[in-house]
Every structure is written in C-alpha cells, then in structure tokens.
Here is the input.
Amino acid sequence: MQINPKIIKKQFEKSMEKYNDNAVVQNITAQKLVQNLIKINQNFENVLELGCGTGLLTKELIENINYKKYYANDLVEKSKQYLSEISPEFTFICGNAQKIKTSQKMDLIISNAMFQWFSSLDKLREHLTNILNKDGILAFSTFSPENYKEIRKLCGLSLEYKTLDELKEIFSDNFEILYTEEFKYTMQFSNPLELLAHMKNTGVNSLSIKHRNFKAIKEFCDSYKSAYPDLTLTYSPIIVICKKIA
Ligand SMILES: C[S@@+](CC[C@H](N)C(=O)[O-])C[C@H]1O[C@@H](n2cnc3c(N)ncnc32)[C@H](O)[C@@H]1O
Here is the structure.
C-alpha cells in the first residue's frame, strides 16, 4: 500500500472529532507506553511527541512525567487546538515527523499508534537518532502484521506492518532495546457498517474498502458477515522502549 502523507493528513483531520470515542486500543497502548516508560525514567528535559493527534498519549504522559519543555508534532495543524486544551505549555511542530527539525536535542521521543504509517522505518530511525541525545529514550507503539488481518484477507489491503523481531532489528542499530510487549485485542461489532465507521473514525479510511460505492460496500458487508460471523476485528499492538547508544 502506498503511504501518502497528504492522504493520511486528510483522513486523520476528518476523524478527529470522533477519534477519542473510537480509539479504544490506542488508549490502551498510550497507557501501557507511559506505565512502562516511568519504570525506566520519569524525568526528562526535552520531550518530543510525534503524531500527537487529539492528545490521548499527551494527557497520559504529562500527568506522569516531569519535563522542562514539551514539543508536540503532527501532520494535522488542528492537533494544536486539541493539545492546548490538555497542556498549558508546549511547542507545536506541524509537519512530517520524518523531516522535522528541532532547536534542541531531545531526551525523550515518544509516539503512540503512528509508526505503522511510515514507509521506511530505517529512515525514520536515522532521523530520530540525530535529534535524540545520547542515552535519550525512544518509546513507541505500533502494530504487527496480524493487525486488521480480517480486512487484509477480504480486501487484500494492508499497511506493511513489521513483526516485533523486525522492529528489534531495525532499531538495534542505534538503540538498546529496554522493553517490548505485544498483545492482541479483539473488537466486536453489531454489523459490518459499524466496523467500517469505527475504522473511519480512527483515521483508517483508505484501508476499509477500495471503492466506496453502494454496491462495493454491500459486497464488503456480505463477505465480512459470511467470513467472520462474530463480526470481530483484530488489533495486534506492539510496544517498544529503547535507549540511544550510538
Ligand atoms: C492513530 S493516530 C494516533 C494519535 C495519537 N498519537 C494517539 O495517541 O491517539 C496517528 C496520528 O499520527 C499522525 N501522523 C501520521 N503520519 C504522520 C507523519 N508522517 N508525521 C506526523 N504525524 C503523522 C496523524 O495525523 C494522526 O494524528
């Protein structure tokens, strides 16, 4: 699947209003990220959050760590408004996380449910390594190839999710892996349209179905019901916390 930041931006912009009510799994990963981060360190000078969205992770994080300066990034300018309701003081950096420049090096870079949107994690790792202080922490959650396996089987559409082993290999070039976790979370819906709406409201429009005309939607709903009569959708999150060593 092609990953186009302009399309991602549009999808997320549209989903923001309903995102928090639908982001059940993203809420769990935000909590897990913070719970496990604070076992490692609770005090940071410069913090950078990538893909902050509506601030699910931001809220959890700023309540649980001590920091001097908080930088928040997202492709979507409107994120700034959401964050200003959560945090009294922060610097918003709008744009592609893979290219952002910071005036200082960071002590913590953190991101929830966003790394799956990058076509090259190697490039992202290189960029983040450059803006992180030595011994700085990188903490993120993403998803493994089992994520939305039902959609992939039915529509053949999927992001190029990495396995935990692949992620460890990518990041171990510059980082010592301190903590990893992977788990499954199954959501159940009362009908396939509800499931499509759930995906759309978490910003995953383009994965739902190729053509969004009435006939294609009906076909999708019928085949989903027959392949997955329980109307379940699988999430498979991964959490990684690592320390810059080189
Ligand atoms: C699933 S949402 C997660 C939002 C938030 N981190 C949370 O905990 O709920 C993914 C967010 O990443 C942002 N995003 C995706 N690709 C990005 C990129 N290349 N650079 C910056 N932000 C990006 C989207 O705009 C969206 O707000």
